[in-house]
Amino acid sequence: MNLGRIAYAYAKKSPLTTVLNLALLILGVATVALLLLLTTALDERLKRDAAGVDLVVGAKGSPLQLVLAGIFHVDVPPGNIPLAEVTRLRANPLVRSVVPIAMGDSFRGYHIVGTEPELLDIYGARLAQGRSWKAPMEAVLGAEVARRSGLSLSASFAGSHGLAEGGEVHADEPYRVVGVLERSGNVADRMVLTGIDSVWKVHEHEAAEHAETPSDDRAREVTMALVRYATPLAAATLPRQINSETALQAASPAYESARLLTVFGVGSDVIRAFAVFLMIAAGLGMFIALYQAMDRRQYDLAVMRTLGASRWRVCGVLLLESTILAAAGAALGIALGHALLGLIGAWLPAAASLASDSMRFLPGEAGVVALVLAGGILTALLPAWRAYRLDVATTLAKSYP
Amino acid sequence: MFALSGIEHHYGGVAALRVAEWRGERGERWLVAGASGSGKSTLLNILAGLLRPSAGSAVVGGRDLTRLPEAALDRWRGRNVGYVPQRLHLIASLDVLDNLLLAQFLAGLSVDRGAAVKLLASLGVDSIASRTPDRLSQGQAQRVAVARAVINRPALLLADEPTAALDDANAQATIELLSEQAEAVDATLVVASHDGRIRSAFSRRYDLEPPT
């Protein structure tokens, strides 16, 4: 016999109320925890993906689209830019390095990116197997691409046209896997890398099929260029310079991803508010249940006083009861949040990278638990006050309502 | 064992109890008799340390309850008083055995399951140890309430109108039960009752007059 056992006995006495309030609390906590985990993972992923690039230079259009396509590889690029412009950019003294990328095809939803080996430096990616690409149609797979496709060294695959899944398959121009990257925890895991000339080759062929003009005559084009500054000073001048003086557009990944998070933030604020409502409903439910129970409980509490319990102890019973309920709700809610994250990772391949670490606990979650516990104590304060003030002699003399 | 003197109690200015002088020795069996409104329950509550009288002194087991600090009074009550309320008030959320263990726990004594089971057996109700109070007969509930009152071997066993709802046979049996149990733990028994049927069972009687 102890206080916990008493609390448990009372919770068991009205199982429906207990389960309902607990369920509301669990759902609220799980939603908040899941949001917290997802937004943190998204924030970190955006930062990691954008970390190596100061500026994306591409065709005029939406700067956000440029960054979404060139950095996060989740959108189609706005258009192409002449290779000559990239060469000009390279000569700019404010620029430390320029890595051109050419996109157009995909493999099972992953972008096939024609680029130079320097791209590996940008993402801090290292080869786990094989070597880097040299000849046309040689490809290096990101860790996630290799894992999901099951392709290994010297396997061949065909890209499909367009950056969405289900495009026309370039079966006559297969790629050959010459290397697989180590997991780097950023967008490099989700790329198929190859030489720019591979991309040109696939599409020249196509151009020749569809157009009369021989493709060799056209100026070479790339999709965009990833720029790293030579000096921090460049941030102030280079984007403006490019946007106003050339036919190109420059977009800052850091700025655009911050903007993206702001947009996403509105949505997550709405969900968070909803989750807080759930938790408040649970708190109110607990309060009403406890308060109503007081009418019947007062006899029990009076008897406990006759058995030697002090005023503080009968308060403690009520406080403990709601605290245990709140603690159980918080713990189960956090567990459910993590379980949901794991499920999201397993069922939605697109979100897998956000859910890769579903067992990781964030400091913010401790904050949620603390808030829920505080709420649990708060809901019991008024009933506990009534218990403290209980007049034992009068209560024992009263008949049941 | 107890000595009350000059006790007066008012509820909101209305006099509820007046006891000029009353003493009892250890092991005695007392009937507190009087019409309704004469303050029998109030007197029991004062003896149990549940109520501080408006005036007077109540010395029980060598302690002046009117001067004991509240926390000490609670502790003292847990160890020294067994109380059988009129409506029994068994805790409905706990089973019979747990009702007894609760009394041990709240008195700050070590929880002794074996002793509780033995006590239930001596009262012939060990077979219902795992039932909840709502599934007990009136007689069983009464036995459990008495068991809960004596589990901590109190020096003072109090019962408020224990026979009010019982027929003649059961009323006699209940008083016998209380006497036996009081004797078993060497407790002073004080029963408050206006039930004329049980008068003969008590050697000592204190008659309360409604205060005016």
Strand arrangement, largest sheet of chain B?
6-7-8-3-9
Q: Please, what is the average pLDDT of chain B?
A: 93
Structural class of the helices, strands and pairings of chain A?
A: alpha+beta
Strand and helix order of chain B: EEEHEEHEHHHEHEE
Rg calculated over all Cα atoms of chain B = 17 Å
Number of domains of chain B: 1
Order of helices and strands of chain A: HHEHEHEEHEEHEEEEHEEHEHHHH
Query: How many β-strands of chain A, per DSSP?
Result: 13
Give a quick account of the main beta sheet of chain B: strands, pairing sense, barrel closure. Answer: 5 strands, parallel
CATH architecture of chain B: 3-Layer(aba) Sandwich
Oligomer: heterodimer
Flag low-confidence runs of chain A: 211-217
CATH topology of chain B: Rossmann fold
* Proportion of beta-strand residues of chain B: 15-25%
Helical run tally of chain B: 6
Please indicate the percent range of residues of chain A in DSSP E strands (runs of 2 or more): 15-25%
Question: In words, what does this structure look like?
Answer:
The complex is a heterodimer of chains A (401) and B (212). In chain A, the strands form two sheets. In chain A, strands 1, 3, 4, 5, 6, 7, 8, 9, 10, 12 and 13 form an eleven-stranded mixed beta sheet that branches. A two-stranded antiparallel sheet of chain A has the order 2-11. Chain A folds into two domains: 3-46 and 261-397, no CATH class; 55-251, no CATH class. Chain A has twelve helices and 13 strands. In chain A, a hairpin with a 2-residue loop joins strand 3 (95-107) and strand 4. Chain A starts with a helix and ends with a helix. Helix content of chain A is 57%, strand content 15%. The mean pLDDT of chain B is 93. Chain B has one domain (2-207): P-loop containing nucleotide triphosphate hydrolases (Rossmann fold, 3-Layer(aba) Sandwich). Chain B is α/β, with parallel strands linked by helices and 212 residues long. The interface between A and B is medium-sized, with 27 and 35 residues.
